[in-house]
């Protein structure tokens, strides 16, 4: 088993922050399938271009996505090839969690 360092805990904290917002989570899940342009992501997720820009900036700041210039446009992809399989693993984990237990307003488990 690998020794856990402060770098590991900081990276997981950034991932947790990113996943704490539904729009950011949906962006990451979409990008695990293929890179995309922000306008296409905004249309696919039903959010404004401004919201998409803000959320992509957050994900870039967390080191989870990277911007790739393409002429006058920029497309986005996951920053690390390990992230897509990790998100797939998290999706499998989520189905084992009681969806009525925790809500965005806090934990309601007893």
Please characterize this protein's 3D structure.
- The chain has 110 residues and is an alpha+beta fold.
- It has a domain at 23-93: Winged helix-like DNA-binding domain superfamily/Winged helix DNA-binding domain (Arc Repressor Mutant, subunit A, Orthogonal Bundle).
- It is built from five helices and four strands; from the N terminus they run ααααββαββ.
- It has helices at residues 6-19, 22-31, 38-45, 49-61, 83-94; strands spanning 65-70, 73-78, 102-103, 106-107.
- The protein has a two-stranded antiparallel sheet with strand order 1-2. Strands 3-4 form a two-stranded antiparallel sheet.
- Helix 3 (38-45) packs across helix 4 (49-61).
- The longest helix has 14 residues, at 6-19.
- The model has no long low-confidence stretch (mean pLDDT 89).
CATH topology of one domain: Arc Repressor Mutant, subunit A
Number of helices: 5
- The number of strands is 4
- Please identify, by name, the CATH architecture of one domain: Orthogonal Bundle
Calculate the terminal CA-CA distance, rounded to whole Å. Answer: 33 Å
Described by the principal axes of the CA atoms, the overall outline is globular
By CATH's scheme, which homologous superfamily of one domain applies?
A: Winged helix-like DNA-binding domain superfamily/Winged helix DNA-binding domain
- Helix share bin: 40-55%
Q: What's the mean pLDDT score?
A: 89
Low-confidence stretches: none
Based on helices, strands and strand pairing, what is the structural class? alpha+beta
* Helix-strand topology string: HHHHEEHEE
Rg calc: 15 Å
Reported for the largest beta sheet, the result is: 2 strands, antiparallel
CATH class value of one domain: Mainly Alpha
Which strands sit side by side, in order, in the main sheet?
Answer: 1-2
Q: What proportion of the residues form beta strands (DSSP E)?
A: 5-15%
GO biological process, one term: response to cadmium ion
Protein name: HTH-type transcriptional regulator CmtR
InterPro entries: ArsR-like_HTH, HTH_ArsR_DNA-bd_dom, HTH_Metal-responsive_Reg, WH-like_DNA-bd_sf, WH_DNA-bd_sf
GO molecular function: cadmium ion sensor activity; DNA binding; DNA-binding transcription factor activity; lead ion binding
């Amino acid at each position: 088993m690998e020794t856990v360092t402060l770098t590991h805990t900081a990276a997981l904290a950034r991932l947790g922050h990113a996943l704490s917002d539904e729009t950011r989570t949906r962006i990451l899940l979409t990008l695990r399938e293929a890179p995309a342009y922000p306008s296409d992501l905004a249309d696919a997720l039903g959010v404004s271009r401004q919201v998409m820009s803000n959320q992509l900036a957050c994900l870039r700041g967390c080191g989870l996505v990277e911007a790739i210039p393409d002429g006058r446009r920029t497309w986005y992809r996951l920053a690390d090839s390990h992230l897509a399989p990790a998100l797939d693993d998290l999706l499998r984990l989520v189905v084992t969690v009681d969806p009525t237990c925790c809500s965005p307003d806090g934990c309601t488990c007893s």
